[in-house]
């Protein structure tokens, strides 16, 4: 039985150097699947977006999706890869219940793109170059849902259901070369690298890039080398991690777990691992197969893909502004400081802020909401801000209500509660919950009189010239009005009532 003792992260770094490797799977957003005419759509009724090719029925023949090939080439170009003028598909043979053909059509020794790199900017501005070994085309498998157990995982489940809607969806798998030298920043680099891939494919328009839907998934490989050694350790592969936070935590956990195993004099088992978000830990999956175990051979039913230099250059001309150049432009346009902009990028909300500004908010307002209240709520919910369910239009509408004086910042948070609860738009929530600011002088005066009567000593201080004490009375009024009073108007009326000039 392998020891699962975890070594504190700082102690891991004292004795070992980490080696990383990432395999990021990107689902392409083509209209149809990789080798069939079945729809490529998310969330439809299970087993409806399938046809004979997806199910591997006898006598059917696949046809390559040209749009998927073009998207794959664009990804390769964006990763600074060389594009193969000639490449082939291969059969990767293994049995799994969500792969009805009993093999996956992929690429083996002839990928569409190879020998690239990506410069990753870390939180403090440090740039770390990650070498890309290859980016190859393949098809996705179906999806298993495990039922009858307490956790929804295969362990303890009574039975499983399979949905073949995802079988055959176009994928590009991006594989790095071994990444050395990250040291203590290995978990941060893992998160930043996957974030950069997600940003690139979303910017290219070739993937919806929604990690919660599995559009971008990461297999994170981790091994440890004793300090001073140049020999790579035995690696484990944590499969299908589908959030940036989880990628970071998975790498950190595996480093601590590996160190515990090695310190105990045991050997690391080369295997796949399952990530569990609830416990932020991994568990053993299956022994990791090497390429020979898959019995790759050229796919006999598909002709080679020939990417002529002219076609590649035509696609290169269609590439959008690179993310690094875009960030530089947006920073200048928005007027953010270096620190402010870096915080936005590190929070992964650049697109959301840009969309909010495009929808009509100022750069300062967009940053205030996304880096403030929305980020706070996302942290509590342990999700990324973009996954909270607040759209740029909601932010613009909320700020418009504040600017018009209908609500204040405090009430806006209550309005946001209603929007997230599905009670309608911000304006509808204000009306339904009666959250509009009280600005009627008669109603305010009654609340002021009550607050003054409750704090006569404070009222005397204000009459005596200590105008700053008016805040205590304003607070009393806000309490009476449940935070719905116009604070500025309340202050004016308090001073007027006490005969004091503001």
TrEMBL record:
Domain of life: Bacteria
InterPro entries recorded: Asn/Gln-tRNA_amidoTrfase_suB/E, Asn/Gln-tRNA_Trfase_suB/E_cat, Asn/Gln_amidotransferase, Asn/Gln_tRNA_amidoTrase-B-like, GatB, GatB_Yqey_C_2, Gln-tRNA_amidoTrfase_suB_CS, Gln_synth/guanido_kin_cat_dom
Listed EC numbers: 6.3.5.-
Occurrences of domain Asn/Gln amidotransferase (ranges): 351-498
GO molecular function: asparaginyl-tRNA synthase (glutamine-hydrolyzing) activity; ATP binding; glutaminyl-tRNA synthase (glutamine-hydrolyzing) activity; transferase activity
Keywords: ATP-binding, Ligase, Nucleotide-binding, Protein biosynthesis, Transferase
Catalytic function, reaction form: L-aspartyl-tRNA(Asn) + L-glutamine + ATP + H2O = L-asparaginyl-tRNA(Asn) + L-glutamate + ADP + phosphate + 2 H(+); L-glutamyl-tRNA(Gln) + L-glutamine + ATP + H2O = L-glutaminyl-tRNA(Gln) + L-glutamate + ADP + phosphate + H(+)
Keyword Membrane: no
GO biological process, one term: translation
Biological role: Allows the formation of correctly charged Asn-tRNA(Asn) or Gln-tRNA(Gln) through the transamidation of misacylated Asp-tRNA(Asn) or Glu-tRNA(Gln) in organisms which lack either or both of asparaginyl-tRNA or glutaminyl-tRNA synthetases. The reaction takes place in the presence of glutamine and ATP through an activated phospho-Asp-tRNA(Asn) or phospho-Glu-tRNA(Gln).
Family: Belongs to the GatB/GatE family. GatB subfamily.
Subunit structure, interactors included: Heterotrimer of A, B and C subunits.
Name of the protein: Aspartyl/glutamyl-tRNA(Asn/Gln) amidotransferase subunit B
Organism annotation: Psychromicrobium lacuslunae
Gene designation: gatB
């Amino acid at each position: 039985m392998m020891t699962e003792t975890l070594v504190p992260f700082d102690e891991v770094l004292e004795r070992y150097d980490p080696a990383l490797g990432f395999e990021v799977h990107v689902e392409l957003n083509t209209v149809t699947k990789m080798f069939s005419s079945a729809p490529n759509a998310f969330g439809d009724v299970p087993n409806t977006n399938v046809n004979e090719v997806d199910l591997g029925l006898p006598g059917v023949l696949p046809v390559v999706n040209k749009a998927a090939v073009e998207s794959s080439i664009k990804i390769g170009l964006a990763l600074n890869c060389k594009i193969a003028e000639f490449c082939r598909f291969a059969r990767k043979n293994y049995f799994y219940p969500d792969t009805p053909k009993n093999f996956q059509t992929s690429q083996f020794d002839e990928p569409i793109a190879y020998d690239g790199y990506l410069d990753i900017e870390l939180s403090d501005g440090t740039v770390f170059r990650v070498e890309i070994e290859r980016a190859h085309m393949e098809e996705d498998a179906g999806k298993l849902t495990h039922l009858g157990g307490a956790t929804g995982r295969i362990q303890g489940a009574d039975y499983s259901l399979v949905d073949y809607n995802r079988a055959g969806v176009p994928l590009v798998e991006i594989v790095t070369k071994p990444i050395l030298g990250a040291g203590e920043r290995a978990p941060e680099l893992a998160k930043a690298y996957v974030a950069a891939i997600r940003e690139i494919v979303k910017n290219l328009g070739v993937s919806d890039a929604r990690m919660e839907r599995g559009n971008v998934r990461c297999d994170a490989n981790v091994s440890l080398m004793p300090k001073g050694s140049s020999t790579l350790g035995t690696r484990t592969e944590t499969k299908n991690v589908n959030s940036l936070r989880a990628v970071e935590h998975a790498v950190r956990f595996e480093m601590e777990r590996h160190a515990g195993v090695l310190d105990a004099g045991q050997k690391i088992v080369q295997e796949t691992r399952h990530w569990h978000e609830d416990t932020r830990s991994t568990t053993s999956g299956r022994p990791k197969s090497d390429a020979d175990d898959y019995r790759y051979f050229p796919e006999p039913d598909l002709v080679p893909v020939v990417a002529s230099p002219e076609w590649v250059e035509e696609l290169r001309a269609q590439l959008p502004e690179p993310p690094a150049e875009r960030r530089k432009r947006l920073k200048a346009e928005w007027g953010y400081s270096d620190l402010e902009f870096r915080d936005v990028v590190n929070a992964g909300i650049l697109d959301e802020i840009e969309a909010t500004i495009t929808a009509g908010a100022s750069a300062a307002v967009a940053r205030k909401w996304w880096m403030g209240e929305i980020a706070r709520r996302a942290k509590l919910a342990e999700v990324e801000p973009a996954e909270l369910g607040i759209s740029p239009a909601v932010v613009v509408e909320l700020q418009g209500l504040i600017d018009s004086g209908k609500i204040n910042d405090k009430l806006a948070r209550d309005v946001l509660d209603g929007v997230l609860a599905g009670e309608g738009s911000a304006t509808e929530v204000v009306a339904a919950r009666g959250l509009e600011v009280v600005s009627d002088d008669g109603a305010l005066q009654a609340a002021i009189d009550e607050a003054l009567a409750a704090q006569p000593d404070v009222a005397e201080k204000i009459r005596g010239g200590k105008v700053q004490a008016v805040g205590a009375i304003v607070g009393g009024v806000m309490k009476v009005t449940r935070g719905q009073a116009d604070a500025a108007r309340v202050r004016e009326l308090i001073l007027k009532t006490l005969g004091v000039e503001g």
